[in-house]
Write a structure and sequence with these properties.
mainly alpha, 1 helix, 0% strand
Length: 69
């Protein structure tokens, strides 16, 4: 004897599936955003490094910490 699945169980299943898919999507977006942020930080550090080296000779006195190191 085959029992029919009640409608509300199908509805709950759909809601759970949608919710988990949304969570996975949000996690993916979060990972991508974090990766972009890290990449921008790295590029910024690489671009700023020669400037910091030049500044360390002129603006900063010997013995002071150079920002970014």
């Amino acid at each position: 004897m085959v029992q029919r699945i009640p409608e509300y169980w199908r509805y709950i299943g759909q809601v759970l599936a949608t919710f988990s898919a949304l969570l996975c999507g949000l996690q993916g977006v979060f990972v991508v955003l974090c990766g972009i942020k890290e990449w921008i930080n790295t590029v910024y550090r690489l671009a700023a490094w020669p400037g910091l080296m030049a500044n360390s000779r002129t603006r900063y006195k010997p013995g002071l910490q150079v920002p970014g190191t």
